[in-house]
Each structure stands twice: as structure tokens, then as C-alpha cells.
Design goal:
- The chain is 38% helix and 14% strand.
- Strands 7-6-8-9-11-10-16 form a seven-stranded mixed sheet, with helices on both faces. The protein has a six-stranded mixed sheet with strand order 12-13-15-14-17-18, with helices on both faces. A five-stranded parallel sheet has the order 1-2-3-5-4, with helices on both faces.
- Strand 17 (561-569), helix 22 (574-584) and strand 18 (591-596) form a beta-alpha-beta unit.
- Helix 20 crosses helix 24 (617-635).
- Residues 644-660 have low confidence and may be disordered.
- It binds thiamine diphosphate, 1-deoxy-D-xylulose-5-phosphate and magnesium ion.
- Thiamine diphosphate binds next to loops.
Length: 665
């Protein structure tokens, strides 16, 4: 790693020879395979941008020039080249983030791991440079072919292309894949560009050869260039990007540093928006014993780099696999049930369904908004669509859920995987907002299963609803042991009685502990700890957390207080809805919610984050006990006991420093 060790920042790249650059690229590949195999992470995407990242940092002057990464999962090489070499705790608590991070480096801008936003950022930064007269700075946006299928990318492109004299460089990192091969007309067009513009490659080659040819080389190159221009204008099909008003440069071999640099230098000279189309290979240079991985090692867990065998034993059955299996069963019984994925067929568990019913599943690309609206169309057309996405990504389709699906009372089921704290993917990947954001959607129902059996049951209940949106949400962890119900009150499962009388026969207790979904495990364990202190908790799983079960206020009224535990933001979540329902029913009881504070959570394992938030049995029991003590004291008119602790969730870890505004030169 001789050369990589010598790279303390982008300036150290500038003097390296062509041979040294090639050697550096191989050192980086070896480093990535070794490091990411130890920690897990986005191995494939980063192996695909080694030469591209080197070329970008040689041609541009980061951070003066802004190099922006869409999604950011492919920024490991960028991190290596900007002085960050300790990957030992990548995506781990206190270690490097798996995405750009302003707290880590001034070279990083976009921390959001949601795809298709980079061109919007670039448009804004380019406008800021223009308004502030920073004509000597470049904005370079790297976007994958997958991210280009996202609608926001086209909103930005429409604006960028309109400003013919505002410099902005777009680098399309075209490896023909998201997880799977990228779908749609855009992918087809990129494929056309890959083949039609072969003369670009010839030109790039010819230029390098000619420019090395003394005396006649340059003039000959210029005449060739002129001829090429004439040819292109006369014969070659104008690509979509040029039709839009962008200068198109490419396709370029994205693994040829000299060719990429040459294209970037051309783009840098162009006084307007220019798109450099780079062809790369996801997972390049990694050929383990395992036959080619289906998704080219998009995300890997900690593994043996030779065999890809996981280093840690799998933690058991995933919620995703339970969902996927039940979908195949439902698909056999219900020919009207169809499925939609946003470029994540396998990660969301729809691969089996797709194999069984290939004509009843669509990959719409990284286009969650379109997924929701097209689902409204499917439902109106007489089918029942199941839209499977990660919880955090449904945020961007809120308006479509509200105004297309719910307003028209469409029977659409949204299955939100990775709901709650996901952890290692950092703040923008936690699925911690859905049970707040979706609370305001009229008619929409939300289920949070506590175990596999409930997931199967609630999924079936959901696809039976044909006049409103339904949502099923579950976390990124293994499915726990089955949690049996002792009784049913209304539509709610009683998991533990709080007093001698069973809850379904009028019994109550000190605390009604409402547990949302997988937090049932925490709630039940907390109730056991409280019982040791003589506090009787009735633990109830609402199953459908929205709307609040009509029987809940009556059940609550047989207790002294209500506590709600949820793997969701405390703001406007299940706890808030329960408190509102009690007020509406004029049941005057204190309600305490134990959930996620209104904060962005730094990356760490899910268990570590939950522990930091106090969402563990011991802490939850302690805080409920303390709250009850304060409530009792208040009832007796006495001051709260000293050090009674706080019922509110401890503050989340401090957010990273706010964005450093660019200082005027
Ligand atoms: C809005 C949104 N939906 C889904 C994802 C999940 N996701 C992460 S990377 C990825 C594929 C990105 O493909 P591409 O942009 O081509 O980048 P590559 O991995 O090929 O480098 C997807 C779907 C996401 N990050 N954001
Ligand atoms: C970058 C991105 O959004 C995905 O690749 C995500 O990191 C995958 O998350 P899981 O590993 O939980 O499937
Ligand atoms: Mg791609």
C-alpha cells in the first residue's frame, strides 16, 4: 500500500505518473476488499469508482471545487483520497460513516443516502457560485445510472439544461445496474449511447496518441476533432441529453484514468452544463470463489473475502423472508394481488414472488413516488398492489400516498421493511418516521406485527382492504420468538395481565403498556422488571396502531397510567395518537411515550442505538417506574422525588456540526 499510504489528500495525486496511478488503483482495490470484508458495506459500488474517483480528485480542486456523490454509498474511495484511511470501524459506532459526512471532512457535502438528489444539490450550488461571483469554482455531480431513474434527477436536469451558460459538470457513473440491471427507457438510451458513440472512444484514444506525437500531433488532432464534430452533427443520433441542451461527452471508459481525466478536463473548459458519460463495472476486480454475485456485491456483510462466507452467524430468520414467503402463498390464492419494487426486488423480499408470478411484479426503478401513483392506477384498474419499499424511502412518496392513494380510497398495501432504527446506514436510513408521517392520512391503516405469525396475519388482513391504503411495517433484524396472546380486547392482543383479573374480563393494573410491533419484546421484559417492584403492567399489542383501537381508552381507564413503546419518532407517533384517543374519550390519564427523539441518529448497530435511546427493558422499566412515582406524588400534591429520573427519552447524540457555509474567497 506504498502509494496509498502516501496519499494524505488530493494534492498528493497530482504528481503521480500514469503507472503509479494504475498501481494506486490496484492498492485501493485491495484495501477496499480487505477492509469492507471485515466490516461489511458497499463493496461493489466502490470497486466500480476507483479510477473515476482518482481522476475527479486529480482534475478538480476539492473542496474548493465541489465533488458531490448521489446516494453516497460509493464514496469510500473519495474518503481514502481525502485523508480518511481508518476503515476499521466503517459504519460502526464512532467509526467512519458509510456515506459522506460533513463532520468527517470539508470534502463532503451530501449526507443524505436517499438516491437521485445530487443534481438538485448541484443546481443549487452552481447558482450560488453564479450569484456570488465564484466563477473559478466547479460543481461536479456524480450520479449512478440507477439514481438517474429517480424523478428528482429529472426535475433538476430540466433546470440545469435551461441554463446554457451556467457551468455544471454531471458525471454519469453507468454500470448498468442498481442492485439488478437498471430498468426502463433511460437504461435503454444509455445502452444506445454506449454503443452509438464509439467514435468518442476512438476520439479519446486518438487524442491521447496524437497529443503525444510531436509537432504534427496536435494539428492533426484538431482536424480530426473538427471532422468528428461534423460527423456527429451530420449523422450520429443526437442523444437525449443533447436534445435537452446538455453538452454530452462520452461514453468514456470509466476505468481508464487518463481517458476520464481527458474528458473531465474537456468538460471543465466548457462554459455550461455538460454530462460526462462514464462506463464502469460494479464490483470490478473482485472475483471471489463464489460465482458472480447477483447484485455485484452491492452491499456485503462482514465476510471471508475469498469465499464470501459470512464472518458472523446469521441471526436467524429475517422479517423480509417471512414477508416474501407469505406473498407467494397469497399470490397463489389471489390472482388480483400484484407487487411493485423500487429497484430493490431482492432486498425487499419480492424475488420469489417475481419468479412465481413474473407478469404480476414491476420494478419501477428508484422511483417511489411513481410506485405509489402507479399503484393507485393498478388498484383503480381492479388489482390489489403491494408496494414493498424500505420505510425511510416512503417518506418521499408521502404526497402520492395522501393525494393519489388515500384521497381516491385505493386498496394499496405498502410493506415497509427496515422500519425503525436500522443503525449502520446512518441517519437517513432509519425508518423512524412512518408511524408519525402517515398518522395524518385519512383512512390509512398501519399494522406493526410483533412476530412472524402476526406479520402473516396482518398482511392478509391488509390485502383484504380494498378501499383504503394499508401499511405493514417491520424492522431490520431477525424475527424473534413467537409472542402468544393471552386474550383479545377489541382488536388488540393482551400479552400480559396487569392484575389478578384478566384484562378481557374487566381486569386492570397500574400501567397499561402499549407496545408497537417488535417493541413487544422490550415491553414484556420491562413489565417483568416492574412486577418485581410491585408495579402491575398490562401489556397490550394493538396490532393495527392506526387508527387507535376503539377499545383502548376503556382498557386504559382501568389503569393509573399509560405507557407506549415504539420504534418510531416520539413526535406524532403511536404514543401521540394514543394520548389523543384518550383525550377524545375523556379518559384523563397520564400517557408517557418511549420512542425515538426528534433527532438524526448517528450510525451504530441497531442494538447500540436503541440502548443509547433507552429503549431497553431495564431503562424502559426504570423510566416507567420513575414516571409512576412522579404521578403518584403529583396526585398527593407532593413535589416529585429528587432524582426521580425523567420519563422522556434521553436526548439523542449531538448532531454533527451544521453545514459549513462556503466562505467567500
Ligand atoms: C430513494 C432511494 N430508494 C432506494 C435506495 C436504495 N438504493 C441504494 S443504492 C441503490 C442503487 C443505486 O444504483 P446507482 O445509482 O446506479 O448506483 P450504483 O450502486 O450502481 O453505483 C438503491 C436502489 C436509496 N438509497 N434511495
Ligand atoms: C445505499 C442503500 O440505500 C442501500 O444499499 C442500503 O444501504 C441497503 O440497506 P440494507 O443493507 O439494510 O439492505
Ligand atoms: Mg449503477
Amino acid at each position: 500500500m506504498r502509494l496509498l499510504e502516501g496519499v494524505r489528500g488530493p494534492h498528493d495525486l497530482k504528481e503521480l505518473s500514469e503507472g503509479e496511478l494504475a498501481e494506486l488503483a490496484e492498492e485501493i482495490r485491495a484495501f477496499l476488499i480487505d477492509a469492507v470484508a471485515r466490516t461489511g458495506g458497499h463493496l461493489g459500488p466502490n470497486l466500480g469508482v476507483v479510477e473515476l474517483s482518482i481522476a475527479l480528485h486529480r482534475v478538480f480542486d476539492s473542496p474548493r471545487d465541489r465533488i458531490l456523490w448521489d446516494t453516497g454509498h460509493q464514496s469510500y474511495v473519495h474518503k481514502l483520497l481525502t485523508g480518511r484511511k481508518d476503515f476499521s470501524k466503517l459504519r460502526g459506532k464512532g467509526g467512519l460513516s458509510g456515506y459522506p459526512s460533513r463532520a468527517e471532512s470539508g470534502h463532503d457535502v451530501i449526507e443524505n443516502s436517499h438516491a437521485s438528489t445530487v443534481l438538485g444539490w448541484a443546481d443549487g450550488l452552481a447558482k450560488a457560485n453564479e450569484v456570488l461571483g465564484r466563477t473559478d469554482r466547479h460543481v461536479v455531480a456524480v450520479i449512478g445510472d440507477g439514481a438517474l431513474t429517480g424523478g428528482m434527477a429529472w426535475e433538476a436536469l430540466n433546470n440545469i439544461a435551461a441554463a446554457r451558460d451556467r457551468p455544471l459538470i454531471i458525471v454519469v457513473n453507468d454500470n448498468e445496474r442498481s442492485y439488478a440491471p437498471t430498468i426502463g427507457g433511460l437504461a435503454d438510451h444509455l445502452a444506445t449511447l454506449r454503443t452509438t458513440d464509439g467514435y468518442e472512444r476512438f476520439l479519446a484514444w486518438g487524442k491521447d496518441v496524437l497529443q503525444r506525437t510531436p509537432v504534427v500531433g496536435q494539428p492533426l488532432y484538431e482536424s480530426l476533432h473538427g471532422a468528428k464534430k461534423g460527423f456527429k452533427d451530420a449523422f450520429a443520433p443526437q442523444g437525449m441529453f443533447e436534445d435537452l441542451g446538455l453538452k454530452y461527452v462520452g461514453p468514456i471508459d470509466g476505468h481508464d484514468i487518463a481517458a476520464v481525466e481527458s474528458a473531465l478536463r474537456r468538460a471543465r473548459r466548457f462554459h455550461g452544463p455538460v454530462l460526462v458519460h462514464c462506463l464502469t463495472e460494479k464490483g470490478r476486480g473482485y472475483r471471489p470463489a463464489l460465482e458472480d454475485e447477483a447484485d455485484r456485491f452491492h452491499t456485503v456483510g462482514a465476510m471471508d473475502p475469498l469465499t464470501c462466507a459470512p464472518l458472523a452467524p446469521s441471526g436467524g430468520r429475517s422479517w423480509t423472508s417471512v414477508f416474501g414467503e407469505e406473498m407467494v402463498r397469497i399470490g397463489a390464492e389471489r390472482p388480483d394481488v400484484v407487487a411493485i419494487t423500487a429497484a430493490m426486488l431482492d432486498p425487499v423480499g419480492l424475488a420469489e414472488f417475481a419468479r412465481a408470478y413474473p407478469r404480476r411484479v414491476w420494478d419501477v426503478g428508484i422511483a417511489e413516488q411513481h410506485a405509489a401513483v402507479s399503484a393507485a392506477g393498478l388498484a383503480t384498474g381492479g388489482l390489489h398492489p403491494v408496494v414493498a419499499v424500505y420505510a425511510t424511502f416512503l417518506n418521499r412518496a408521502f404526497d402520492q400516498v395522501l393525494m393519489d392513494v388515500a384521497l381516491h380510497k385505493c386498496g394499496v398495501t405498502f410493506v415497509l421493511d427496515r422500519a425503525g432504527v436500522t443503525g449502520t446506514d446512518g441517519p437517513s436510513h432509519n425508518g423512524m418516521w412512518d408511524m408519525s408521517v402517515l398518522q395524518v392520512v385519512p383512512g390509512l391503516r398501519i399494522a406493526a406485527p410483533r412476530d412472524a405469525e402476526q406479520l402473516r396475519a396482518q398482511l392478509r388482513e391488509a390485502v383484504d382492504v380494498d378501499d383504503a391504503p394499508t401499511v405493514i411495517r417491520f424492522p431490520k433484524e431477525s424475527v424473534g420468538a413467537p409472542i402468544p396472546a393471552l386474550a383479545r380486547v377489541g382488536g388488540m392482543d393482551v400479552l400480559r395481565h396487569g392484575g389478578p383479573e384478566p384484562a378481557d374480563r374487566g381486569g386492570g393494573g397500574d400501567v397499561l403498556l402499549v407496545v408497537a410491533g417488535v417493541m413487544a419484546q422490550v415491553g414484556l421484559a420491562a413489565a417483568e422488571l416492574l412486577a418485581e417492584r410491585g408495579i402491575g403492567c398490562t401489556v397490550v399489542d394493538p396490532r393495527w396502531v392506526k387508527p387507535v383501537d376503539p377499545a383502548l381508552p376503556g382498557l386504559a381507564a382501568r389503569h393509573r397510567a399509560v405507557a407506549v413503546v415504539e420504534d418510531n419518532s416520539r413526535t406524532g407517533g403511536v404514543g401521540a395518537a394514543v394520548a389523543q384517543a384518550l383525550r377524545d374519550a375523556e379518559v384523563d390519564l397520564p400517557v408517557r411515550t418511549f420512542g425515538i427523539p426528534e433527532a438524526f441518529l448517528a450510525h451504530a448497530k441497531r442494538g447500540e442505538v436503541l440502548a443509547d435511546l433507552g429503549l431497553t427493558p431495564a431503562e424502559t422499566a426504570g423510566r416507567i417506574g420513575a414516571a409512576l412515582a412522579r404521578i403518584d406524588m403529583a396526585r398527593m400534591g407532593a413535589p416529585a422525588p429528587a432524582g426521580a429520573g425523567s420519563a422522556s427519552t434521553p436526548a439523542a447524540r449531538p448532531a454533527p456540526p451544521a453545514a459549513r457555509k462556503e466562505k467567500d474567497a
